[in-house]
Amino acid sequence: MLRDLEKAGRIILPPALRITRVAGGGSEKVERISHCTKPVESELHKLKPLTIKIAQSKQDIAIFKSYIAQFHYLGFDRTVGENIKYIVMSKDGVPLACMMFGSAAWKCRPRDEYIGWDDGQRRAGLQLITNNVRNLVFPWIRVPHLASHALAAVTRRISSDWQAKYGHPVFLLETFVERDRFRGIMYKAANWINVGITTGRGRNSETMQPTLPVKDVWIYPLRADFRDKMN
Questions:
Q1: Are the C-beta atoms of 149 and 44 separated by less than 8 Å?
Q2: C-alpha separations of 152 from 149, 189, 190 in Å
Q3: Which of 1, 9, 64, 153 has a CA 20 to 30 Å removed from the CA of 113?
């Protein structure tokens, strides 16, 4: 995608970097690509309508992974299960942001209580939730309200995208925001609901003591009757 824009004379990219492999811990191998980091400072309306593209080709997936690996504080870990990767671009085709939705958390008390799930319902219904596991506005992009606007645009289409790719819809979105690092402003602005906090113990904890950052739990129902669909 970026190389095509360069060939068309719309952007100038630096030379590609040598491929670096991420090893250990089961992480995927990521090609570290050089990206155009020319600053974009603008009002949102000047960049609209935005294009939101699903990364599906081998090239686009490699570009997506490289963005996350280099510029997201958590990096890029392996993808497990169903997932969709989105790249957000301006009306002129300039990449602005990217986000990935993947498998829902196995257990989350605030979420499960909000839905009204017991253990059996949770096990049966997890495929109807997707987790916004990565959300990145590139560091050189300075566009007020871009993050919440792009997120809202994705929420309007993600269930049909999921249906097209996996043969079933999703009815609820979730994400987990580290309380000591972020305030979740973009999710609040996009009308997500804060339903509680995590314990910080994690799925594989062997003690009752927190070992992970405590996170706010944000959810977004995609339809008013989501509980009927998920119970």
A1: yes
A2: 5, 9, 6
A3: 153
Residues 174, 219 contacting (CB under 8 angstroms)? yes
Residue 144 burial (CB count, 10 A): 11
Residue 11 has what pLDDT?
Answer: 52
Which residues face 89 on adjacent strands? 51, 95
pLDDT tens-digit series, residues 69-125:
999 999 998 777 999 999 999 999 999 999 999 999 999 999 999 999 999 999 999
Q: Which amino acid, 64?
A: F
Nearest to 159 by CA among 149, 168, 150: 168
Are 132 and 177 contacting, i.e. CB atoms less than 8 angstroms apart? Answer: no
pLDDT at 200: 74
CA distance 47 to 95: 11
Reference 82, options 157, 136, 158, 147; nearest CA is 158
